[in-house]
Amino acid sequence: MDLDPHVEPELDSFSLFLPLPYRVALIIVLGVWAWGVNLHYLDLVKIDVPQLIRYPGRTSSSHIPHHQSCYRLATLLSIPYVASLLLFWLITRGNADAVLRWEILPNLYLLILVVCFFLPFSMVSGNGRHRFLHTLRRISIGGIAEAQDGKFGDILMADALTSYAKVLGDLFVALCMFFTKGRSSTGKPDRSCGGLFMVPLIISIPSMIRLRQCLIEYKRVQKSNRSGALSGQGWGGQHLANALKYSTAFPVIILSALQRNYEDGKYGMSEAGLFRLWLFFVFLNSLYSFYWDVTKDWDLTLFSEARNDPDHPWGLRRHRFFHSNSMYYYVIVIDLLLRCTWSFKLSPHLDHFNDLEGGIFLMEILEVFRRWIWIFFRVETEWVRTNRGPAPDDVLLGDFSKDHDSD
After folding, report:
1. pTM to 2 decimal places
2. What's the longest Cα–Cα distance across the chain?
3. Structural domain boundaries, residue 269
4. Sign of the Cα pseudo-torsion (113, 117, 118, 124, in order)
5. CA dihedral 239, 242, 246, 252 (to 10 degrees)
6. Which of 62-76, 178-192, 254-268 has the lowest mean pLDDT?
7. Structural domain contains residue 395
8. Alpha-carbon distance 371 to 285, whole Å?
9. How many CA atoms lie within 13 Å of 229's alpha carbon, on the beta-carbon side?
10. Is residue 376 part of a domain?
11. Is residue 6 part of a domain?
12. Does a structural domain hold residue 71?
């Protein structure tokens, strides 16, 4: 707004091609397509996702499947995106001044994106959009439904938000620059826009949501145990362990922000010491999250004594809906690699050392890809728990294994 191109830092080639608002929008639209593919494939292997998330099933054969409804919404979002981007390229032709001046186009699409979720028409996934907004409103303050009211759906969405943490930060940056005099949202991203700690705070919100959900679950178990309603269901320790997992993201983000704005003597620690402390928490968060994915979210036996059980392939579990055993092993490796990569890119201060916007965008895409894969196996695990019995004990949290209704 009120742009003065001369105060804008030089644009990199990737930002000339795909400015920040378009990158944010693209990742959001890809997420809708990815959820449709999740629903589609899981339906093919006879896993009823709507039943697990307590979403109304189709009452008539004339109703289109849930995944097709999701594809329709994704198509509705994709068509104006492609049209807007092509028009932007046609007008700007890679000229930096033109890219800065025509910021209205990508921001107009962001407005269209929001409107598409709120429009009252029912032809394009009306019930799904309503359920999405209702769930988002509940979890946005860390709320979580009871199991019979769709708790599993709340958990899936809240976990997906943690993978979109950096995207949410970039969305704020784009809007902040759009409404800042003398700046353009299509210019070089200024991740200090709005204050030095505003972006780190926004990146922290999804982890705060999951942390509060875990604490709510713990309190529910405690309350039920006092009333005798869940006798023998454990004391809720697994929820506390899960809350601890999400809390390990905060030191990474905080220490990263301190490094980005480091001043000698201000924090009572050298820059090298601050970096080493940050690196420790990066690996703690990555490895703890990886362990939880494998052992608690997917119920695999890789880290337990049961991994050598002859009833199932090494490190897996007895009941599996995906027929290829090698698929499980590949996913474990991919999850480990991308968990570590994402923890690094979750850190705002790395933007100070790495100005390759294309690299940052790639990391965000890879995290959405990791979460997409994670959802397949997390939903499959929940289906196994529901239809085949509880999860096996694990080596570190075996004392809590009776409390299966957690993530």
Report:
1. 0.88
2. 69
3. 13-56+63-388
4. positive
5. 140
6. 254-268
7. no
8. 16
9. 6
10. yes
11. no
12. yes
